[in-house]
Write a structure and sequence with these properties.
The complex is a heterodimer.
Chain A (H helix, E strand, L loop, with lengths): L1 H7 L4 E2 L6 E2 L2 E6 L8 E7 L5 E10 L6 E4 L1 E3 L2 E6 L8 E10 L4 E4 L10 E4 L11 E4 L4 E3 L5 E5 L13 E4 L2 E2 L5 E3 L2 E5 L11 E9 L5 E11 L2 H8 L2 E16 L2 E16 L2 E10 L11 E8 L3 E8 L13 E9 L3 E11 L5 E6 L10 E3 L2 H4 L3 E5 L4 E11 L5 E13 L11 E13 L4 E13 L9 H10 L7 H11 L9 E2 L9 E11 L2 E10 L15 E12 L4 E11 L11 E11 L7 E12 L15 E17 L1 E16 L7 E15 L2 E14 L2 E16 L4 E12 L3 E13 L2 E12 L3 E13 L1
Parallel strand pairs in A: 13-20
Antiparallel strand pairs in A: 1-2, 3-4, 4-8, 5-6, 5-9, 7-8, 9-10, 9-11, 12-14, 14-18, 15-16, 15-19, 17-18, 19-20, 21-22, 21-50, 22-23, 23-24, 24-25, 25-26, 26-27, 27-31, 28-30, 29-30, 31-32, 32-33, 33-34, 34-35, 34-36, 36-37, 37-38, 38-39, 39-40, 40-41, 41-42, 42-43, 43-44, 44-45, 45-46, 46-47, ...
Chain B lengths: L1 H17 L3 E2 L5 E7 L2 E4 L6 E3 L5 E2 L3 E5 L4 E6 L5 E4 L4 E9 L2 E17 L7 E5 L3 E5 L2 E7 L3 E8 L1 E6 L6 E5 L2 E6 L4 E5 L2 H11 L3 E8 L2 E8 L2
Parallel strand pairs in B: 10-11
Antiparallel strand pairs in B: 1-9, 2-5, 2-7, 3-4, 3-6, 6-9, 7-8, 8-10, 9-10, 10-13, 11-12, 12-15, 13-14, 14-17, 15-16, 17-18, 19-20
The chains are: A mainly beta, B mainly beta.
Chain lengths: 793, 227
Amino acid sequence: MKKIFVFLFTFIYLSNVSAQVSNYVSRVRMSDALEKTQLNISADLYNVENISQISVVYKPFGETEFKLVEMQISGTQANGSISSDEVVPPYLEYYLLIELKNGSKQTFPLGIEEGVLPLQIVVSSKSEKGKGIIVLSPEEGEVFTKDDFLISVSFVRSGDNIDITKTKLLLNNVDITSKALIDNELIVITNEQLNDFNFTENNQLEIKIYDKENKLVSSVLRNFKYVNKLIASKIQNQFSYNGQIKAEARNENTFSNQIFYKNLLVDFNSSYSDWKINLNAYFTSEEKENLQPFNRYSFSIQNENLLSIKVGDAFPKFSNLILDGKRVRGLTGELNLGFFNIQTSFGEIFRSIEGKLLQTYNANNVPLSNDVISINPLKYKAPFGKVIFGTYKRELFAIRPSFGSGKNFQLGFTYLHGIDNINSIEFGARPKENVVLGTDLKLSLDNNNILFTTNAAFSLINKDISTGTLTDAQIDSIFTSNKDLNINPSDVKKIRDLIDKFITVNQYLGPWNPQKFASLGSETVLSLNYLNNTFRASYIYRGNEYQSFGQSFLRTDIKGINLTDRIRMLDNKLFFSFGFENLEDNLQNTKLTTTKFQTISASVSYFPRMDFPNITFGYSNNHNKNGFDYKDLTFGKYAIDETIKRLSLILSYDIYYLVKHSTSFSFSNSIREVKSSLNTDSKSSNISFNVNSYWYKNLISNVGFVYNNLDLFGNPFNYFSVSIGGRYILLDDKLSLYGNVSPSFGDFKRQSFEFVANYNVMNNFVIIFQTRIFRIPNQSTNSIVGLSTRLNI
Amino acid sequence: MKKYLIIVFLLSLSNFLFAKNFPSNNQVAIVKKIVKEVQVKKASDSEIESAKIGYSLLDGGQVITKAKSLALLVLTKDKSLLTIRENSILNIYQRKVGNGINTSTNIDKGTVLFKVEKQSADDGFEFVTPSAVASIRGTSGVIDADSIQTNIYLEEGEIFVQSKDDPSKNVTINGGNKLTIDNEGNIEVQEFTDEDKKKIDDTKKINTKKIYITTPYGILEIEYLIE
């Protein structure tokens, strides 16, 4: 078994951030996980040549259903984000799903399907303390000249625990705190105090707010322009622009397989008055005709929240059930008038990829096989052929009119139509068509303390439209000759004519049991925020036939409730969270029996904001059972009776010894017990420890280790990894050097080394050199060497 | 235990009785932008001086704008914006009441464009002119006052207006309406006309143009509001 693992883990690399092993992901970085704030996730990749798609798979606390967000691959990086609504304390569980070009899938960390634990990230509650800080000036994107420059922060609303004198102001990473005039509850800096400051055109101000215990409670960023009067005069005419051009050349040498990559990214933004224009184009040598597109391009124009139109690649977000995050190459736009709004998207979601004819057959020697189809006898001199099926071009149209601004009320209706273009390729099978009709409602009361949302959708799917709609003759032949059906053919024709306006009507159209709500999907959520409780109750129902081309990753054949409650105590220092979920499948009795999925979870988090570690302790118990006894001779093989218990402890603490050392420790343990005649139990434990030390302003070091202990079906697999690295900035902040060494020992052996140099040749021109070397003892030494440049305009 | 409860009760009561209506000694607003000639009194007992960007106004602070001049104030409590147009005199007062902050803006004369953020339940915001008192909770529009009458052009939200001398004469208007009230409490409400809309648009214009003239003695800078 160890050999299998060694094979599995061949060509793996240790992340110095998430400390996990993977064949394709070297490390995962993410933005601060703060309650109700979008969480950005970035994965550094290698072996990109083999990757077709990467997704973040995640679930908020208390839920059992994982949700999926596609990541955008750009060079050796994939970026994705979890929407702010989903980022709730105490923690999120996530993993990455890597889809390979050969059709197989892999997860990061490896072995999620086999019972390896997903990663956890602690979600911090928004500090009530930082709530009352108001940045009066600058506004985001504001343009200043020397005469009207002003930084001002109001602490009028801040809590008693905030210490205004500890506030730090960093302008373009230069500490300008000493220049600030602190007057009672106001901080002011005008141009008089910054007369000798070396402004650039684009500047960034960071305001760090501290409490009386010297803990950072809030950090605010503002980007603004500082220009001379003539430019300001032009900008007052309200035209401005910025952009970047990024080019990368990279060589990957893996197992003697050498691949050279070239990428070019152009991003241009311009604004005039309330109008904004964006042009984005990404070209890569990975673009291949026989794959879905890797290149991306789009042009968009936007007027505040009123109007936006995007041509090219877009990821429209409609209802979660209907269209959410799917790439649409075409036109996407919305008009928001408040009392009436309209949102639409249409274009291509899959491009056509022609299949391949492998062999031809005559009528007398044609074999019976799924991949043998009728072909053009005149063209190929034979009536049948064995083919590799291609992919039809799939086109999608969605429109959602809605009423109400959404601030307190919104009622929306969505129509989606998706169809495979049967003429787009010659060798294809079972082109499909899909129609979804949905409605959604949002009600918000008492300043969002009561929030009610509900949406429902009904889908129709035709699984093969190649034969087209049923003809009158076909209907007559079926319903006239078959008297037992007792159906008048003319009634069928009327219904066909009605439905045919929306979707092809033939024998492949479903669902066949709409009266059982087989293709109904619905979600209803009620959130209440009172008495230091954040309570959320939801009900989901998704029939087994529910399908939308705009949402590929929805779990169907499931219904049930989910309840979570988070209690805030001790001035938001102590949090208790409880979750209960009860789901079941087999909604349309299409399975032998019904499986029930029940999860109870609880966690306690303590953020003392003083000399004591932040602690998050979580426990969950997931029990899935379908009622069959595994000892039953007839149905035992279908039995599901498993319990998964998970325990986690995360500690973080800043130690001040000579300098600041940010430490974190995590322990997680999972036990999966399966009542089965086979031994399919598994156990997984993970311990990790990490220290970031801030030696000087320009030197940060990192030391970490991770110990993994996996017992899969009675086969142990243990390894231990160390990671040592650091970042050093020199030459007046122009050159940044980053290095990391990570050896792994035990059942998995490997040594890896990473080095990145980032040199600012000019203020707006950067050269980045990156190399990664990883050696697998007695097997191979592999490398990635890349050079990229970035020009800001 | 009972004794402690009485003490807590008395403390709460004293907080309610005595902590109420204390004038705020904090900054009420900050000068964010000025065009041409603007004067300020930082507090009621301060001297009048030429305004500078970054100046803060305390309780009782005053702003005076001269011809073709303008001042933009940002309120420190919630980032509400007041744009004081030419030839205006505005006094600003602020009181801490319990957990809330009440702001009162007295417009002796002139035109003020306001964008007031939604006030919390504990807070209050009002405009006082020679003829009216207008209470708002979160709205935007223009208020134009002189010693005889007040015009309020309400773009969004809701505003409760009462006669200064006779509070029984009052009305609530919604966005899209113009209200006129005079010294005798006569109130007239009507929907925006094109002329009213133009008045609002003109009041919003705060961009300036500058002309630089090179003279033998240096560069002469002339700044003027774009009409």
